[in-house]
Model the fold of this input.
Amino acid sequence: LGRRSGKQIATLAGLAPLNNDSGLRRGQRSIRGGRRRVRQALYMAAVASLRTQSPLNAFYHRLRQAGKPPKPALVALARKLLVTINAIMKTRTSFAT
Done:
């Protein structure tokens, strides 16, 4: 944490959509690979954050109102948590809501 970009850290945790392309075929992007335990912990933290009145909760509800299904919205929230933690570690600042 703190040494890689947000995209790289999301890929390492398995929270980045990866291509499923071959030749001219363009497959659907999916979340896969990465470190399973990290992904599970972030997902559970995302679920727990829905019980609070935080900017993370508001982010989730904005995604839902925009038409995103519940589980992909939770994965997006987990990725946002990871990228935020990475930025905090990189800049050595505290998280202020």
In short: The longest strand covers residues 17-18. The longest helix spans residues 70-91. Strands lie at 17-18, 21-22, 25-26, 30-31.
